[in-house]
Write a structure and sequence with these properties.
Blueprint lengths: L2 H6 L34 H16 L2 H7 L1 E4 L8 H7 L4 E3 L4 H14 L7 E4 L12 H6 L3 H18 L3 E2 L23 H16 L12 E5 L18 H8 L1 H8 L4 E4 L3 E2 L2 E2 L4 H11 L5 E3 L7 H4 L6 H11 L4 E2 L3 H11 L5 H17 L11 H6 L3 H14 L1 E5 L11 E5 L6 H5 L14 H9 L4 E5 L26 H17 L2 E7 L20 H10 L4 E6 L9 H4 L2 E4 L7 H10 L58 E8 L3 E3 L3 E10 L5 E11 L10 E10 L4 E9 L5 E3 L4 E3 L3 E8 L6 E8 L1
Parallel strand pairs: 1-2, 1-10, 2-3, 3-4, 5-6, 6-9, 12-13, 12-14, 14-15, 15-16, 18-26
Antiparallel strand pairs: 7-8, 11-16, 17-19, 19-22, 20-21, 20-25, 23-24, 25-26
The structure holds 1-deoxynojirimycin.
1-deoxynojirimycin binds next to loops.
Length: 770
């Protein structure tokens, strides 16, 4: 794959496939043209550029390389961080979250560092800072970009109060393989949903523009293709066709860049044999030349040095040269660029102008963030922001809006008139597991577990009993063990374990209803948390089956951030609520949902397999030789998903009718209004997510059987009926064709479905005209 190759393909004999191709623009949807970065053509941008260029003119090469270096505070080196600051050998720190320490280091840099250049403090503010919100996969399950924007904006408030001005988020990697633990950090399997979430999160972090008060700089990661790791093994190689790259994996990055993301992080792995951190095609040709990205690129942790580990660079010097020449501006944690690039410039391996460009991008971003004018955080904000009532309220609302109701036989939920509830399971009263992975600075103590939430909500009217029943732990240590060390298993002998199991089942027998809180501990999903199986870890399945065998009603509440094998539960447990890792207010939110104070309205952002053997599985597959036998592709079990993409129930029920399009034909580049009447036929208020899927019937290449092209979450009062109108922009129908090697909207007939998940049946057709 190369830029040259793609451009050569412009002369592909299109006539052969008998199609007129529209909106032709080389290798992707946007128009390629060399132009000045947009920001610099504004008066503020021109002023920033003058300031930065003057500053750059005064800096030595060593000082420039210092700006390109990011180090964690506790990194063991001969030179202390303070000395590095005084010598101008560092531009950024990561993982410093103490307000006073940030303030001290910033004073050192601004008052005594060369040229008084402020530092930029970065941290993984992934789903909250002190107050923890539902994990990103859950935010995608809200199918409400405004919710995701609100959450990241609240997270930015807390982080900026201490002086953290840069987050390494959003992660926009498409994930279609539930074995991959980092599925948790993104928006799931779909490029359209992923793009809407990516741009919303960027807006949430950064505000209206970079430098907005109480906001922070976003960093879109991991560029690019990381989610397609072979076998779902974290960090493993990625082999992606151009078609997959352009149509599936790149769109959320482009959306985030278009939304103004200030930084991008290069990925760890190799993409088609070229490590992403040394990949000029990605970092220069696509990101800067094509998408006009005007921010800076930071490597992932040690990923510059690791260009040698990949068998790509010959040694650390070569790694530094290759990374910077490919387009990396700042090196995270390893420091081969800082230590080798001066010599490389001397030897002519790297042009000094390349270094200047990198440093200029970094300084421009510091300037745009306002760091030169206001380098210090207003520490009086810390107490007011951290864990404020507004944060808790927003966290509860987010957890309520992200939960997905997977099953509710006989209307077991919401719970009514229960006099006793048994809250059972290893995750029922665990604060870290309610928060989820990547909550490194979160306030553990403030977290409300499911047990605590149920006590708060039902304690006055019902007796609440609780026990763990079984333990769960990882087979291998986690890289996050130092944050949340696994608790010592309480019952140590087999006899004690059996007694605990029996005790749990006794509580189930004694209660009117049981809530089993099962799933994965927080360190079982996230970075380096890939799995061989998707079963409920430990003996949770046995506990669940024994609880159901008592004949008493059981509600399964899942804490997780990947689909788990709940195939048995899906036909035997009457009510299943997927709460994901719901965060600080998770317990209160879950209790509100169980009580019916809130109504679940989330939808799955990933297809839910029946078995790990189905991975990778996604709804937007191509049609095959025997489409009618799609569900019987394995002789030893079904190949159908357990739950389709976009699926989720409500305590209300909805009826759709009268699907209509504003026209039967539309010119490429135009748009159609798609309307449907929706009625809440239930007795309670609720939300439904209207989803549009399309399929191109024929063309230069096969297109997926269905692709999401629009959605909206809408609230309805009981009995309310309204017309929901969504715009279908034909721009969304364009794709990169493996036959023509270009991006185009191809004229022809399209199917369209509207409904409440990816199996929607309300159907229409329309034609795209040349
Ligand atoms: C490595 C992870 O891959 C990346 O996502 C994260 O931002 C950095 N570490 C910093 O924590």
């Amino acid at each position: 794959m190369s830029f040259r190759f793609a451009r050569r393909a412009l002369i592909h004999p299109l006539a052969l496939c008998g199609l007129a191709l529209l909106l032709v623009s080389g290798i992707g949807p946007a128009v390629m043209a060399a132009q000045a970065p947009a920001y610099e053509s504004t008066p503020a941008g021109a002023k920033a550029a003058r300031f930065v260029d003057a500053l750059l003119g005064k800096m030595t090469l060593e000082e420039k390389l210092g700006q390109m270096s990011q180090i964690p505070l506790n990194q063991k080196e001969d030179v202390t961080p303070d000395e590095r600051i005084l010598k101008g050998q560092v531009g950024s720190f990561l993982f410093v979250t103490d307000a006073k320490e940030i303030d001290r280091l910033q004073h050192l840099a601004v008052e005594r560092g060369p040229h008084h250049i402020p530092l930029i403090f970065g941290f993984d503010v992934i789903h909250g800072f002190r107050t923890i919100y539902p994990v990103p996969l859950a935010l995608a399950a809200s199918w409400d970009p405004a919710e995701a924007e609100r959450v990241e904006s609240m997270a930015a408030r807390e982080a900026s109060a201490v002086g953290v001005r840069w987050t390494f988020a959003p992660m926009v990697d498409i994930a279609r393989d539930a074995r991959w633990g980092r599925m948790m950090e993104g928006a799931g399997e779909d490029p359209y949903l992923g793009s809407r979430m990516a741009e919303a999160e960027v807006r949430g972090f950064q505000g209206a523009e970079i430098g907005s008060p109480n906001h922070i700089l976003a960093c879109v990661k991991h560029f690019a293709g990381y989610g397609a790791a072979e076998g779902g093994r974290d960090y493993d190689s990625v082999d992606l066709s151009d078609e997959q790259l352009w149509n599936v994996y790149l769109p959320p990055f482009e959306a985030a860049v278009d939304a103004g993301a200030g930084t991008v992080m290069s990925a760890y792995m190799d993409l088609n044999d070229v490590p992403a951190t040394g990949n000029k095609f990605l970092l220069q040709d696509v990101l800067r030349d094509k998408w006009k990205f005007d921010g800076f690129v930071v490597s992932d942790w040690d990923s510059v040095l690791n260009l040698t580990t990949h068998g790509f660079a010959a040694g650390p010097e070569d790694a530094a040269v290759r990374a910077v020449n490919a387009g990396v501006d700042m090196e995270m944690t390893s420091h081969v660029m800082r230590d080798n690039l001066a010599e490389a410039v001397k030897q002519g391996l790297v042009k000094e102008s390349t270094i200047d460009e990198a440093v200029r991008r970094i300084l421009m971003m510091k300037y745009r963030l306002g760091l030169f004018e206001h380098p210090y955080a207003d520490l009086s904000r810390v107490d007011a922001e951290e864990g404020s009532a507004a944060q808790h309220e927003a966290a509860k609302e987010a957890a309520e809006r992200t939960a997905v109701l997977l099953r509710n036989e006989g209307g077991l939920l919401p719970l009514r008139g229960v006099k006793s509830i048994a809250v059972i399971g290893p995750l029922a009263d665990s604060k870290p597991d309610t928060m989820g992975s990547w909550s490194l600075a979160g306030n553990v103590a403030d977290t409300v577990t499911v047990l605590a939430g149920i006590r708060n909500r039902f304690g006055a009217t019902a007796t609440i009993s609780s026990t763990e029943g079984v333990e769960i732990e990882r087979g291998q240590p986690s890289i996050f063990d130092s944050q949340f060390p696994s608790p010592d298993p309480a019952p140590t002998t087999e006899a004690e374990r059996e007694a605990e199991f029996r005790h749990a089942i006794d509580l189930v027998k004694q209660a009117d209803v049981s809530v089993l809180v099962l799933g994965e501990a927080q360190n079982m999903s996230g970075e380096r948390a890939s799995r061989l199986s998707l079963t409920l870890p430990g003996k949770q399945e046995q506990l669940l089956e024994a609880a159901v065998a008592t004949g008493k009603p059981v509600v399964l509440v899942l804490l997780n951030a990947r689909p788990l094998n709940i195939t048995w539960a899906s036909t035997h447990v009457p009510a299943i609520l997927d709460a994901w890792y719901p965060g600080t207010e998770g317990g209160n939110a879950i209790a509100a949902l169980l009580a019916g104070d809130a109504n679940p309205g989330g939808k799955l952002p990933v297809t839910w397999p029946r078995s790990v053997g189905q991975a990778p599985i996604y709804y937007a597959h191509n049609l095959t030789q025997i489409p009618h036998a799609r569900d019987a592709m394995y002789w030893d079990g079904s190949s159908a998903p357990l739950y389709p993409f976009g699926y989720g129930l409500s305590y209300a029920s909805f009826r759709l009718s009268n699907l209509r399009l504003s026209a039967v034909s539309v010119k490429a580049g135009g748009s159609l209004a798609v309307s449907v009447d929706v009625k809440n036929t239930g007795a309670v208020a609720g939300d439904e997510v209207m989803q549009i899927y399309t399929h191109q019937r024929s063309g230069s290449a096969s297109r997926p059987v269905r692709e999401l092209k629009g959605f909206r979450r809408v609230s309805f009062a009981p009995g309310e009926e309204k017309t929901v109108t969504l715009t279908l922009n034909t721009k969304e129908l364009g794709f990169w064709s493996s036959a023509t090697h270009r991006w185009s909207i191809e004229p022809g007939t399209f199917d369209l479905w509207v409904g409440t998940d990816s199996t929607a049946t309300d159907h229409a057709t329309f034609n795209v005209l040349p």
